[in-house]
Each structure stands twice: as structure tokens, then as C-alpha cells.
Amino acid sequence: QAQLVQSGAEVKKPGASVKVSCKASGYTFVNHGLSWVRQAPGQGLEWMGWIYSGNTNYAQKVQGRVTLTTDTSTNTAYMDLRSLRSDDTAVYYCVRDIGPAGDAFDIWGQGTMVTVSS
Amino acid sequence: QSALTQPRSVSGSPGQSVTISCTGTSRDVGAYNYVSWYQQDPGKVPKLILYDVTKRPSGVPGRFSGSKSDNTASLTISALQAEDEADYYCCSFAGTSSWVFGGGTKLTVL
Fold this sequence. Notes:
A: mainly beta, 0% helix, globular, B: mainly beta, six-stranded mixed beta sheet, 9 strands
């Protein structure tokens, strides 16, 4: 079955960068877009950005600090977040677009906890 | 892009129905029939329960239904069960490959 498996938890200092990976399996990777969604402790979900077929779009809040990429040879997506601040502390999820059948995020990675602390 | 507005909490007794609202703007909820809903148990990964306003993924019970009027979408859960207690989030397509989530609603089954 389709699944997304993310890299492990990270602890970073303010000002540093983090790169989270998301490996897809069980479906044709290039046929679906991928978004990244984060959730700060005790808070709601926040959409951060989207990538599909080399095209990207980012939320204003993280624009300029985030870069999404994919490696189609390994069916892996990456989220690179720079100039980390304490309010970037969150669980980061990669999520799959449902595809042409509709609009939604139907497959979620298990989440990667990123902690930003001095 | 401002978050969609959801009530912070709702509650209901087993067997009753509850409705969770999700209010956006004419640039997101009002502009597209692309509202989805997610259920999140504490400490777990969110799960898609409705998409395109009214569609249910395979395996989601028919007790979950959705609707939309103007800039407000709604999730209705009928015949409430204890296992429905969770956080619920709405999400809308907002144009140009962007999305916006609601702040989340905590459902308590009394």
C-alpha cells in the first residue's frame, strides 16, 4: 500500500538549517504532488509548501527560508528549512495529494519532530 | 493567508449528531469545492475523512458527512460514538497550489 516514511527527529540550534526526507513507496511517485504540513506542540496544522513535477509553491510565512525538492530516482522528497527559530519547533509531515480524483491529502508520513533550542 | 475559523470545541452525547463549522473567505472555501476534513487522535497522524466537500475515502463510515454554503463548510457526525472523540481540522484549496487549514476543533463525546 502507498506510504510515506520520513527521517528521524532532529534537534537544531537557532539559525541552523534542517533537511527532512520523505521516501514514498507503493505508488507512482511522479503522478502525485506532495505538500509539507507542520504542527507546533499543542497547535493546529499549518500548510508550508507544495511540489509537483519540479514546480513549487510556498506559504508566505516560510517563503525565503524553505526549499522543497524531490529525487525521482529514489522516490524521495526533501524539505530544507533554514535560519531556524524557536517557533519552527514542530512535527513536520509530508503529505500526498490525492491526485486527479479530487483535492485532499490522503497519505501522511509518520511525522518528524524538529526541535529548535539553544 | 489566514487560517480558516473553526470552533475550538464541540461536544455531544453518544448517539447524537454534532456539526463542526469551518469559515473561510471568497478566496478559499467560497471559491472552490475543495474542502477536506481530517481527524487526529492525540499523538497520532491526521487521517483524511472527507474531501471535495462531501466525498468519503474508502473505509470512512457514512456517519461522517460534509456540506458547504458560501464561505462556510461543515462536517456533521451523526450517531456519535466514543471513538469519534478527537481533533478535527478542515482544509481548503486557496488557489495557485496553496492550501489553508482551520485552527482545529476538539470533539468531546460526553
